[in-house]
Amino acid sequence: MSIGSHDITDVIKARLKDFKAELVTSEVGRIITVGDGIAQVYGLQGAMAGELLEFPGDVYGMALNLEEDQVRAVIMGPYEHLLEGDQVKTTGRIVQVPVGPELLGRVVSPLGEPLDGKGPINSKKMAAVEKVAPGVITRQRVDTPVQTGIKAIDAMIPIGRGQRELIIGDRQTGKTAILLDTIINQKGKDLFCVYVAIGQNAASIARVAATLEQYGALEYTVIVAATASEPATLNYIAPYAGCAIGEYFMDQGQEALVCYDDLTKHAWAYREMSLNLRRPPGREAYPGDVFYLHSRLLERAAKMNKANGGGSLTALPVIETQANDVSAYIPTNVISITDGQIYLQSDLFNAGVRPAMSVGISVSRVGGDAQTKAMRQVAGRMKLELAQYRELAAFSQFASDLDKATRDQLERGSRLTELLKQPQYGPVPLGIQVGVIWAGTNGYLDKVPVARVKEWEEGFSRYLRADAKTLVSEVEKKKALDDDLTKQLERAAKAFNRQFGVEGAGAAEAEPEAEEAKGEPKAEAGKAEAGKAEPEARPAKAESAEPDEERRSSKDRREAERRAEKAAVEKDRREKERRAAARRAGDQKGAKSAKPAEPERRTTARRADGAERRQAERPDAKERRGPERRTKGTK
Ligand SMILES: Nc1ncnc2c1ncn2[C@@H]1O[C@H](COP(=O)(O)OP(=O)(O)O)[C@@H](O)[C@H]1O
Ligand SMILES: [Mg+2]
To answer: With contact defined as beta carbons under 8 Å apart, do 71 and 41 qualify?
Structure first.
């Protein structure tokens, strides 16, 4: 085939027709010094704050300090090859990331480069990482819940779409676990997720990606990863980039959730960067604008009104505390910015209460409006009950005798606590949550031994899934409990309880513990009285009159244990007295060894006159009692 010269001229003409000469202006400056990821650049008088600067070798930087005759810029990427005198050009652009549905299922760097080896990302749109948050007029109040699938959170600390809920706690308390469970629970729903890893090691990010993939959650999730080994700049940009990726969905009228794991490390990165930029350090060496760092990020979470598309962006920032110190600088900042917080405590976590949420001090300030009505109906009082239970439980460790109301509250509380425990990666659908919590708060659990509550919960969930499918789907559809649904729930709970081997509802504890009165006259008198007074004062909630065997037997066992303990203590005391007496009666060499016995004698004397009861009510009672009595306090 031959090509004529006119073919060539045609092609050239066609090309020339579309040619437009655009004037590209870019300022050029020169590097004065470079180091620590920071470059001082001479010239560039026209650079914008936050503008992308082009360094030799395809490396970009961001202009942060605009000074009279120089610009200080952070370099995003390797800077070892940069030299004094190298050229730096302005680009006229603010730092941008690719956004769009093409990013779903991908792991990207804070600049939008793929990190997962799945090929290039062909996104069609770019968005600036820094953006002014939507204004008041464009917003709407939060009215739809984000179902986390975690019973304790959905029931007591509901999160609304467009809300900012802080997750705060020491390391290894299950913060990341809550984020992952929440993301996993969005399968088949309409919420897109962005998980931003800041300053974590690459292995944990890989683990997160693998977990999400395993549970089929990666397909609607974007992971933005800045590892601890990357320059502080990338860690600094990461949450803004993640936010921009989430905002894309919000601007499309869709719903998105963005998790920042965690903002403590973000603040560290910013501190490092600021100190290198020679900005003056303030409290805890953070720069003065560290509050603004997080407020402008979290303010971008919003629920837009109908006129503005009706989309939403929910933010779940994480803060890691040191030794439960929530009053440190960064934690207090972020607490004051967010709309509520979920406190995770390591002592609860270690005691097996997982998720280790501290009910008393966790709060969701706007999510209540968004909570599903059915859930509000069943879980309304639970938060208060549980918070009171924790206080009572702490207090009753020292008290030897409790009235029945207190004991009932303790019994109920321990069962509810048990009911809210939940393993990882097992999100519970709304209908099941409502059923289980309804049963728990309406006394259907009261006769189940605490140790079997978990088993009961699993069984009842299975029962609801299998035998009460229509009930569950009705609850999820209507989102509220009417009389009919309540009746159905009642029937289901009763039927299951029969299967499980417990009958009816309500606490069946009304027997006064009279036999103990012999041991400790003063203390026990009160208890017996309380026990007798109770039945009239608080009509038993029991619907069935027959006493429950299991409940009774576990109580008997506890009593027997208590008695055995008391006998052992008594024996111990007598033995010691006997020895002390023997020593006193003995010869002179016994005089020395008699001294240590003195305090013991005093304790026994004090106990004999009943002072012990007064002591028991004091928090320091443990120390004051003789060592031989210590076991008593924990019963
Ligand atoms: N509900 C839970 N049940 C059982 N184990 C959990 C639960 N939540 C977290 N864990 C475990 O506790 C450990 C710490 O959790 P993680 O979420 O990594 O804590 P953090 O992010 O606070 O450091 C992990 O090994 C995780 O598997
Ligand atoms: Mg974590």
So the answer is: yes
Cβ atoms of 177 and 215 closer than 8 Å:
no
Helix, coil or strand: residue 606: helix
3-class state of residue 377 by DSSP: helix
- Read off the pLDDT of residues 176-208 as tens digits, 9 standing for 90 and up: 999 999 999 999 999 999 999 999 999 999 999
Instruction: Using pLDDT thresholds of 50, 70 and 90, give the confidence band for residue 535.
Output: very low
Gap between the Cα atoms of 384 and 433, Å rounded: 18
User: For ligand 1, atom 20, which residue shows the shortest CA distance?
Assistant: 172
Asked if pLDDT for residue 492 goes beyond 80, the answer is: yes
**239/258 Cα distance (integer angstroms):** 9
* CA 322/CA 596 separation, integer angstroms: 42
Is residue 402 very low, low, confident or very high in pLDDT (cuts 50, 70, 90)?
A: confident
Average pLDDT, the chain: 83
Amino acid at 3: I
CA–centroid distance, 118 to ligand 1, in Å, is 29
Q: How far is the CA of 173 from the centre of ligand 1 (A)?
A: 6
**In the 8-state DSSP scheme, what is residue 136?**
G
Number of helices (H), then strands (E), belonging to the chain: the values are 24, 19
Q: pLDDT tens-digit profile of 146-170?
A: 999 999 999 999 999 999 999 999 9
Angle among Cα 319, 187, 379 to the nearest 5 degrees reads 65
Residue 512 has pLDDT above 60, yes or no: no
* Contact between residue 169 and residue 262 where contact means Cβ atoms under 8 Å apart: no
Q: What band does 363 get if pLDDT is binned at 50, 70 and 90?
A: very high
**Probe residue for ligand 1, chosen from 166, 172, 183 as the CB with the greatest number of ligand atoms within 8 Å:** 172
C-alpha distances in Å from residue 151, one per residue of 88, 429, 445: 54, 9, 16
Q: What are phi and psi of 364, to 5 degrees?
A: -130, 110
Give, in order, the Cα–Cα distances in Å from 361 to each of 36, 282, 482, 522: 41, 29, 32, 37
Q: Which helix (H) or strand (E) holds 259?
A: strand 255-261
Rounded to an integer, what distance in angstroms lies between the CA atom of residue 602 and that of residue 229?
63
One-letter amino acid at 625 equals R
Distance 146 CA to ligand 2 centre (A): 21
On the question of pLDDT at 626 being above 90, the answer is no
**Which residues are known catalytic residues?**
365
Rounded CA gap, 258 and 192, in Å?
A: 8
Q: What is the CB < 6 Å shell around ligand 1? A: 169, 171-177, 354-355, 422-424
E strand or H helix that includes residue 92: strand 87-94
CA 387 to CA 376: how far, in whole Å?
A: 17
What does the pLDDT look like over 600-617, one tens digit per residue?
444 444 444 444 444 444
Rounded distance between C-alpha atoms, residue 425 and residue 184, angstroms: 7
Single-letter amino acid code for the residue at 495: A
Question: Tell me, what's the pLDDT at 538?
Answer: 41
DSSP 106-174: -EE-TTS-B-SSS-----SEEEESS-PPPPGGGB----SEE--S-HHHHHHS-EETT-B-EEEESTTSS
Residue count of the chain, please give it: 635
Ligand 1 atom nearest the C-alpha of 421 is 1
- Percent of the chain predicted with pLDDT > 70: 79
Q: Using CA atoms, how far apart are residues 109 and 100, in angstroms rounded to an integer?
A: 15
Q: What is the pLDDT of residue 559?
A: 64
